[in-house]
What does this fold into?
Amino acid sequence: MLGTTVLVIDGPIARADVSGLCERVRVLLEGGDADVVVCDVAALVNPDAGTVDALARLALTARRFGRQVRLRHDSGELRELLALAGLADVLPGCAGSPVGPRGQPEQREQPGGVEERVEPDDPAG
It folds into this structure.
């Protein structure tokens, strides 16, 4: 492991800002020895599809250098949008994130008080 560099995203990401952010990631990776870019996304309070697109482009930029992007201080809403877009594994959270990296659904435990049972007269559907 080479190291980590941090990119703070200090507010909503406008479409016009995406190329500049990707350029910042490129410069950070070309000029440093980091193998992971940690994006602090605490300021992204109302994420939307544009936010997800911008973060995906940052991840793509990092992958072109054989590196990875991780999110720090990512909200549950952002994690849900990333999962909906199929990007949860592409943009994982850091260990210190409130939601943190998640396991696969098959690895989660059943919520308390919920039991599965088979009704004898219920046809399998």
Notes: The helical segments are 18-31, 49-64, 76-84. The beta strands are 4-8, 36-40, 68-72.
